[in-house]
Amino acid sequence: MTSAFITGVSGATLSADEARFLKSAAPAGLILFARNCVSHDQIRRLVGDARGAVGSDDFLVLIDQEGGRVQRLRPPLGRALPPADAYACLYEDDPAGACDAAFLAARLLADDLRNLGINTDCAPVVDVPVPGAHDIIGDRAYGREPRQVAALARAVAEGFMAGGVLSVIKHIPGHGRAMADSHIELPVVTEARAVLSATDFAAFKAVADMPAAMTAHVVFTAIDGAQPASTSRTVTQDVIRGEIGFDGLLMSDDLSMKALSGTFRERAEGVLSAGSDLALHCNGVLAEMEEVASAVPVLAGDALRRFEAALAVFRRREPYDSGRAEQQLAVALGTARRRTESV
Question: How many CB atoms sit inside 10 A of residue 179's CB?
């Protein structure tokens, strides 16, 4: 029986207490951070130990490996990856070529991740930034126009999935307008519903067929002025499941982010009662992990259906030209380097 949460662990090896916790709590997945990644063999051992403790092959192993600022695996543990903005630059001159390059880079990265036992990447970002917004999104975005963002994000997601890696689009229904970093405080967005529908929500609507997504800890006052999207049943049902039409596996952003308040039990209950399928807790603090685990149910009904549909991605493995993918990645890295040098 799989419980409706994803957990982190504290370090590079699984402690006896963590192993006992994983066995008893049976989370749906494990998320890795830089603190968990020392060497390739060590990562494989940690993943194997976690899988063994849980005792199930139906297990997500997640990482945030977007590129640019957000890479848990950096050289020499992982290849250098450009930020999303590099593909946005390529898109200006050659939209089809930029999408092809983004697809191939993601397909290449999927092989790297699978080789380490990682089967889920919390990417791509589908947020649409606006001038003056907090830089927490910034160059992680694939542009400033919803259609372009959606086109490049789709290419990335499909590249991951062609390699058997689940793509988690984020941060639905949109973090691009936030004037604050939700890791530190709760962002409040005051734009009218019509504006949001035409921009932020439109980008996600264009990729609503993706199998997994992560919510935003952002208040949208035009829809629910009291709760962030992640704990708002109104936003989850009316916007994410409704207007956007997303029916895939929905997980919260990290419960330990300071945008949320209350106990960890209350946070976990909040995101699940709002309509997320999985609560995500990342920091590896065992007492908090235990509190989250005590609050979540076993996956059942629609949540289980969506989880099983997401797992089906792992069976995919489509051939590709790895040499051409390396060449296209080099072009994107060169674009990113020139852009940095010109600033």
Answer: 14
CB contact at 8 A, 248 and 211: yes
CB 333 within 8 A of CB 83: no
pTM of the model: 0.97
> Residue 164 region, left (φ>0) first, then alpha (ψ -120 to 50), else beta?
left
Q: What is the DSSP letter of 221?
A: T
Residue numbers annotated as active site: 183, 253
- For residue 148, pLDDT over 90 is answered with yes
134 upstream amide cis, omega within 30 of 0: no
The sign of the CA dihedral 204, 238, 307, 59 is positive
Helix or strand (DSSP H, E) at 81: none
CB 71 within 8 A of CB 40: no
Bigger pLDDT: 339 or 179?
179
